[in-house]
Amino acid sequence: MPWGTHMIPRLIGALKGDVATFEEVEHDEAATIQAGIVVVVAALLGGVGAGLNTSIIGGDDAPGFLSAFITAAIGALLGWLVWSVITHFIGSKFFGAQSSIGEMLRVIGFAHVVLWLTVIPIIGFFASLWFLFVAFKAVRAGLDIGSGPTAIVILIGFIIRIILSILPGL
């Protein structure tokens, strides 16, 4: 069966926050490429959305479209990689989760399908909120831990990710 055969149903399942979809991609090592594609598309669309927001809202000190696009796109890709590694580390070291970095890359990558909607400036905000819900389900499925520990893992992961994104600017 070609690697792209299950892509559309997986995208729809991830968009809905379907746990069975995240369980499926968690265990399918071939889905890592698919997850990467989802994140690349999310990064590009998010970059366009950021550029449009900058162009629409603007201001004298606002970055240009291209600068906002590049920053958002690179940030999304690096964020996916960093968050996947951090989530795996925290889940396995502190909560005894039996996962691999590859599994976290896949489930978190597929959760990024929600961020495709960030290309639409106003809808993008609500898509980001929906992403938190979907990412919670993805991480819980990927780590195979309860809701409480999952919330802690995500919170710590986001804090670390924010700190790491601020450090280069210091």
Textual characterization of the structure:
This protein has 170 residues and is an all-alpha fold. It has one domain (7-169). Helices cover 77% and strands 0% of the residues. The protein is built from seven helices and no strands. The radius of gyration is 16 Å and the shape is globular. The relative contact order is 0.15.
Overall number of domains: 1
Low-confidence stretches: none
State the major sheet.
none
Q: What string, H for helix and E for strand, traces the elements in order?
A: HHHHHHH
Task: Please give the share of residues in helix.
Answer: over 70%
Labels describing this entry:
single chain, 170 residues, mainly alpha, globular
Summarize the structure.
The protein is mainly alpha-helical and 170 residues long. The protein is built from seven helices and no strands.
Task: List the topology elements.
Layout (H helix, E strand, L loop, with lengths): L6 H10 L2 H9 L3 H27 L7 H31 L5 H11 L9 H23 L3 H20 L4
Helix pairs in contact: 1-2, 2-5, 2-6, 3-4, 3-5, 4-5, 4-7, 5-6, 6-7
